[in-house]
Design a protein that fits this description.
The complex is a heterodimer of chains A (161) and B (328). Chain A is 12% helix and 57% strand. Chain A is mainly beta. Chain B has 328 residues and is mainly beta. Chain B is built from 2 helices and 25 strands. In chain B, the strands form 6 sheets. In chain B, strands 24-23-22-19-25 form a 5-stranded antiparallel β-sheet, with no helix packed on it. The A-B interface holds A 19-20, 23, 67, 69, 71, 73, 76-88, 90, 94, 96, 106-107, 110, 112, 114, 116-126 and B 29-33, 35-41, 43-52, 101-102, 133-134.
Chain lengths: 161, 328
């Protein structure tokens, strides 16, 4: 009898919980990406007809070759919430210069002094700073939208091949 | 010689291939920067909410008359000052209203639909209900009817204005008793009938069926009001002097002269009062009161048979159980 009572109570709580939940669908570009919701893998995209409780949640989307996405959302009480994530690709870029004794810095944190190097860059704009003998001699923004090769010439805009 | 040269090239090529394989082609491609360089660009994310709708269905039953226009007001969370929505429409058989998701109290029955017929003869009706987040609510049918028609007042003795308790009072439509009651010790009565009788043509108030006097009958016209007050005086008026006799049956001849064959002035009903002034062995001579319009009473003299009347005793004005006046 006690067991039945517990079962009934459990079912009731489950029912109440389900009725309060919001229908969830998650789509990503590219497809077939693992979706982590509050640290739990809820499957690969596209996800349809899943359920989520109203409130604050964290989505983490990681796929090789794309910039990872971490997204905090406050889910409103509603019938359904549809999320679309467009992942930013990472392109391999070759960076080459004929100049001697230069040090390059990208986005204020990544440094190198090789005259020829391969870089994995997130698509979009990156800020390039050039040093010579610890002095800034050039600053430029480079735009990455595909795998490409950059040639750097001192105080000239970076040229693409 | 040619074969030796070919072997030499093959040997050199093999060594170069091995070097390239071991160095990961970095000699040709250059070294790879160890980290992925992000530009912290905001990812493109689209969030779309789908909000449900609440459909409320409320069937309405109209008892008797149907009001022309009804105002519906929907309130939530017990707030009766600010309606979520107000709708004025012709009286529907089923009231439908659509509300946005999340506006109703889903925990308590604190949501209210006020049904306000735009007719003063109807009273507003409230429907309380528990809400849902979204979806359809079908409420139980609600009846709409006119307000009750009420008539009240006091019943007293005309002779000395003493309140009369225990007097039967009823409302009749044609001869059908719709509602009946008995006056309390103070002579007070109150009767109510459904509003559907508002425009009934043959509605009347009847009092004193259990008394020895002629019953009081008054046509009721509720067409302009829902409540009326009638104070009912029973029995002979103050103006009639003692001794007073009452007729003990229907169709008692009230004649101009005492002799047989004399002209009958009136046929009196049971319980009508005669103020007797002269007596003969077989007849009484006296006066009766007659209403001549505008409730003006005049007295008229005439004769009645002694066997058709009995002496009024104001201490005993109720009929006996059998209801026969002559048994008094």
């Amino acid at each position: 009898m006690f067991r039945n009572y517990k079962w009934f109570l459990g079912s009731l709580l489950l029912l109440v919980n389900l009725s309060a939940q919001v229908k969830l669908s998650v789509k990503t570009i590219p497809k077939k990406v693992n979706i982590m919701l509050d640290g739990i893998n809820i499957g690969k995209s596209p996800i349809i007809n899943d359920r989520i409780n109203p409130g604050v949640h964290k989505f983490e989307i990681i796929k090789s070759g794309f910039a990872p996405i971490t997204y905090d959302i406050l889910v409103n009480p509603s019938q359904a919430v549809h999320l679309d994530f467009f992942m930013n690709p990472i392109y391999q870029v070759k960076f080459k210069t004929q100049e001697k004794g230069l040090v390059f810095e990208l986005n204020g944190e990544h440094l190198w002094d090789d005259p020829f190097i391969r870089l994995d860059l997130e698509a979009g704009d990156h800020f390039l700073r050039v040093f010579k003998l610890n002095e800034i001699i050039d600053e430029q923004t480079i735009h990455v939208d595909e795998p490409k090769k950059f040639n750097y010439y001192l105080k000239k805009p970076v040229s693409e091949e | 010689m040619l074969k030796q040269t070919f072997n030499w090239f093959l040997y050199i090529g093999g060594i170069l291939t091995l070097i390239m394989f071991m160095s990961g082609c970095s000699l040709l491609k250059g070294p790879l920067y160890p980290d992925v360089i992000y530009n912290n660009r905001q990812p493109l994310i689209s969030v779309t909410y789908e909000y449900g709708e609440i459909e409320i269905k409320l069937p309405l039953n109209y008892i008797g008359v149907v009001p022309e226009i009804i105002s519906f007001e929907v309130y939530a969370h017990g707030d009766t000052a600010n309606p979520i929505i107000s709708i004025l429409q012709e009286a529907p058989r089923v009231f439908f209203v659509y509300l946005p998701q999340g506006v109703l109290d889903i925990h308590n029955k604190s949501n209210i639909i006020k049904i306000i017929p735009q007719d003063t003869n109807f009273r507003p009706v409230n429907v309380r209900f528990k809400g849902i987040r979204f979806g359809r609510i079908v409420l139980p049918p609600k009846s709409i009817q006119m307000g009750q028609l009420i008539v009240n007042g006091k019943v007293f003795l005309n002779k000395d204005e003493t309140p009369l308790g225990g007097v039967d009072v009823s409302i009749q439509n044609f001869d059908n008793v719709i509602k009946e009651t008995t006056t309390n010790d103070s002579g007070f009565y109150q009767l109510s009938v459904p509003g559907e009788y508002k425009y009934a043509q043959h509605l009347r108030l009847v009092a004193g069926n259990n008394m020895i006097f002629k019953p009081f009958k008054q046509k009721l016209d509720f067409s302009k009001t829902l409540k009326m007050r009638y104070n009912i005086g029973m029995g002979p008026n103050k103006a009639m002097e003692d001794p007073i006799y009452l007729t003990n049956r229907e169709s008692v001849h009230f004649r101009e002269q005492p002799d047989i064959g004399s002209e009958t002035l009136f046929l009196l009903g049971a319980g009508e009062a005669i103020s007797v002034t002269r007596v003969t062995p077989g007849e009484y001579y006296g006066s009766i009161e007659i209403e001549v319009g505008s409730k003006k009473m005049v007295q008229l003299d005439g004769w009645v048979n002694r066997t058709d009347v009995f002496l009024l005793d104001l201490n005993n004005v109720f009929k006996k159980e059998s209801g026969n006046v002559s048994e008094l």
